[in-house]
Specification:
48% helix, 7-stranded parallel sheet, binds nicotinamide-adenine-dinucleotide, Rossmann fold
């Protein structure tokens, strides 16, 4: 299926590794010009050159643009650099490092502020900066990477359980407000994907429950109907479809990609 993305431009936040990197690779494989963004310049450059070699045959171009999502002016500058480099912006993938794990009694006022800034406000700021360019695109797409905590609370991830549903409210509202501009707004809710974030979470679970990290991973796998964690490219394929011309009538949705685990409708 031709996704109709060739020559279009994407900005992928938090893209030096994990789900963001996989999203950037999937979009670049469709011949897009992709800005990959994250904090650490060195890893980001390595990611950009890896993705460029892997996707050059598809006609991609990759540009690394460092940006700390906790820094509001840096977000504006990163989007401005994207448009300066490629002349337009069609697809925004709003992603981030994820809020700190913890239960209510373990979280401080600072943890709450940091998570609101990093998870909620960074997404608002990315969308605000991208909006004039997405309007000009004629086929603008906002894609937010959330979590299955949008559907049911996850034990030990209180900040995610509070803030991700807020992102769903943001996306649903923007789908209505921006529909007249031809912009679709969706969020993709990953279950458990094999990234560094899951390594960290499994280490915490192992410590809390007095089990090995291997056992923690095995328990995660066993709770998933498909019997395993997702591969980042399996989330990225859904994002590429939603970014595409083929998904022109899908907006305001939460798309769960979790191997069948989440119980809620
Ligand atoms: P990861 O740890 O593998 O990658 C995180 C990325 O975010 C890295 O590129 C890192 O450099 C970047 N980053 C972190 N803080 C940043 C900041 N302040 N500014 C700019 N970039 C920053 O994580 P992942 O598994 O790819 O997760 C991505 C998002 O998806 C997170 O929000 C996570 O909570 C969410 N999520 C992941 C899973 C999963 O199973 N992996 C499940 C549900 C939700």
């Amino acid at each position: 299926m031709d996704l109709g993305l060739t020559g279009r431009v994407a900005f992928v936040a938090a893209a030096s590794k994990g789900l963001g990197k996989a999203a950037a690779r999937a979009l670049a494989s469709e011949g897009m010009k992709v800005v990959v963004s994250a904090r650490g310049e060195e890893t980001l450059r390595a990611t950009a050159s890896e993705l460029a070699s892997a996707t050059r045959a598809a006609g991609s171009e990759i540009e690394p643009v460092p940006c700390d999502l906790l820094d509001a002016p840096a977000i504006e500058a990163a989007i401005a650099r994207t448009v300066a480099r490629f002349g337009r912006l069609d697809v925004l993938v709003a992603n981030g490092g994820g809020p700190r794990p913890g239960t209510f009694s373990a979280l401080s006022e600072d943890d709450w502020r940091h998570a609101i800034d990093g998870t909620l406000l960074s997404t608002v700021r990315l969308i605000r900066a991208a909006l004039p360019h997405l309007r000009a695109s004629g086929q603008g797409r906002v894609l937010v990477i959330t979590s299955t905590s949008t559907k049911e609370p996850i034990a030990g991830l209180l900040l995610s359980n509070v803030l991700r549903p807020g992102l769903v409210g943001l996306c649903k509202t923007l789908a209505k407000e921006l529909g007249p501009d031809g912009i679709t707004v969706n969020n993709v809710a990953p279950g458990s994907f094999d990234t560094d974030r899951m390594v960290t979470l499994h280490a915490r679970i192992a410590q809390a429950q007095g089990i090995s990290e291997e056992e923690a991973r095995a328990r995660t796998d066993a709770a998933i109907p498909l019997g395993r964690m997702g591969r980042p490219e399996e989330l990225a394929a859904t994002l590429a479809f939603l970014a595409s011309a083929r998904a022109s009538y899908v907006s305001g949705q939460t798309i769960v990609v979790d191997g069948g685990r989440t119980g809620a409708y």
